[in-house]
Amino acid sequence: MWDRERILKHISADPEVCFGKPVIRGTRIWVSLILDFLASGLTENELLQEYPQLTREDIRASLAYGALTAHERIVPVLAK
């Protein structure tokens, strides 16, 4: 299980970088971009080929960050 401290070793948010969006530390790669690619079916290996500056730990930290924010926020969904 990932804790906040471990996640934050990989992710940062700075108002001067990418409008303050969470990014992989030391890059301009948005965490949301990684999550979008994975959700659309891109594999971890494909993502690493596309963005060689990423590590597997960066990808896992992005997933953990997404899970953490899902615990703390509610995103409205339409009921059918």
Describe this structure in words.
With 80 residues, this protein is mainly α. The protein has one domain (4-72): Winged helix-like DNA-binding domain superfamily/Winged helix DNA-binding domain (Arc Repressor Mutant, subunit A). 48% of the residues lie in helices and 5% in strands. Strands 1-2 form a two-stranded antiparallel sheet. α2 (31-39) packs across α4 (56-72). The longest helix is centred in the last third of the chain and has 17 residues, at 56-72. The mean pLDDT is 88.
List the helices and strands and how they pair.
Blueprint: H1 4-8, E1 11-12, E2 23-24, H2 31-39, H3 44-50, H4 56-72
Antiparallel strand pairs: 1-2
Brief summary of the model shown:
By secondary structure, the chain is mainly alpha-helical.
Strand order, main sheet: write it out.
1-2
Largest sheet: 2 strands, antiparallel
Tell me what portion of residues adopts beta-strand conformation.
Answer: 5-15%
Query: Can you count the beta strands?
Result: 2
For the record, the CATH class is Mainly Alpha
Q: Order of helices and strands, N to C?
A: HEEHHH
| End-to-end distance | 33 Å
Number of helices: 4
Q: What is the CATH superfamily? A: Winged helix-like DNA-binding domain superfamily/Winged helix DNA-binding domain
Shape call = globular
Helix content: 40-55%
